[in-house]
Amino acid sequence: MFKLAKYLKPFLPFICLAVAILLVQALCDLNLPNLMSLLVNEILRQEGESRYILRIGLQMLGVALTGGAAAVGVGFLSTWIAAGIARDLRDAVFRKVESFSAREFDAFSTASLITRCTNDVNQIQQIFVMGIRMICYAPIMGLGGIIMAVRKAPAMSWIIVLAVLVLIGMVMIVMSLAMPKFRLIQALTDKLNRTARETLNGIMVIRAFGTQAYERERFDGVNRELSAANLFVHRLMSAQMPAMQLIMNSAILLIIWAGAGYIAASALQVGDMMAFIQYTMQIIFSFLFFSMMFIILPRTAVSADRIAQVLETEVLIRDPAVPKVLPGPFKGRVEFRNVFFRYEGAGENALEGISFTAERGETTALIGATGSGKSTIVNLILRFYDVSVGAVTLDGVDVRELAQEDLRARIAYVPQKSVLFSGSIASNIRYGKRDAADREIREAAELAQAMDFIGENGEGEGLSGFEASLAQGAVNISGGQKQRLSVARALVRNAEILIFDDSFSALDFATDARLRQALREKRREAAKIIVTQRVGTIMGAEKIIVLDKGRIVGTGTHAGLLEECPEYREIAESQFSQEELA
To answer: Looking at the structure, do residues 536 and 453 belong to the same domain, yes or no?
Structure first.
């Protein structure tokens, strides 16, 4: 919890106010049994004064009303404080995750980040809803109750000492049993979310291979393990209340038994014994609240540590203290200078000695077998990762010396996996340029060859089709349509550098050809970098770079590589006949 202290600072004045109101409530609650004892003793006197009884009764009413008003005020403040802290923590976690580079995302699973942003923050919110009252109120009531009880009947203080010792022993046992389970519950929650996410994302594959039973068993195993841990904790907490009731009732019996003797000997008044019972109940309930906090606090501490892990994670890819500015006019020249790169924890380099230049107005293609390093090169241009050795430059400036926002503003990127968001087609295309006009959206869609299906989605013609809704994950359109919308989203930016990371794989050959022709005509000045497995997509590229196991094994045009590069010829022959290549 101390790691998150800076997020509590804005609320400290309100927390102090809540504690002050709690103090008023506690004083009222501690004073009520004392007033009650005075009232009972006066009533039991044979010549009780009615005016005195009325005055004490009115005092009790005033104290009760003040205590009730204080309880309402504390409830309102604690809820408001807890909601505000939870809001700020969620915002801080989300902002931190947005700043993560790919390396940090590799360290945290998506399911774990979601759990930390929701479930773990909720745990902290709950501790402030209950904790402000319990942590502050319970000690005041416990200590005050002991003082007041001892003042009323010092001879029976041994009963309170005995009850407190038993309560402390019970609390320590509960803590020792609950703490490991709370850590396990949070870890299992992550695992359950991860399993559910994998199953839902891969439901089509699961059905295609008929592995529903296996997935049910996998989910059921985690689910049962989490249920067992939760059951253990809840049974432990459920058993605590009856144990407290047993201790309290036993203490009351001892008080009545011992008090009866003192009353018979005229050493104690009936009202004082009743007040002693009330104070004893307050003491025991204070320990009940306190023990509940000792059960909840370990779980909250685990959640706080998990949130702190995210917030304290050092982001490796950061903007320089004084970012450089790209020289104007910007040419969009991308250069790799003897680049080596190794993923975190990998045993060998993913890229070795990569050197090439992508010029403005040219198409530079990257081709090679799966795992040859094509997408890694794209990630280095966008600075999703930083090179291990060497440099990647834009117009001669190392990308590490640029502000990330400035760097990526110059690049339009279409990822290997088409990612679209729920909303309209227009809102997804406009994601590439937030202030894009309707004319620009239409032009980008036409370039991406997407108008043939956009027109079908609307009732009318023209822009009415762009208002058609996409479901979450764009599951209501095909893979090829997703790719074309992803391409349109990149093209609407009209950037100087276009990067397509295997972005035409779901397109038929005719649509692929039309799209490439449109790019040559309408985006002639841009530097185009295309990652692909299709030789047909890059035959007309000015520069083709062939990769194999992280190294460049050939650079040139299609015709030149067919003669000079065995690896490229092998790829080409796997896709075309000898007659087609001739």
So the answer is: no
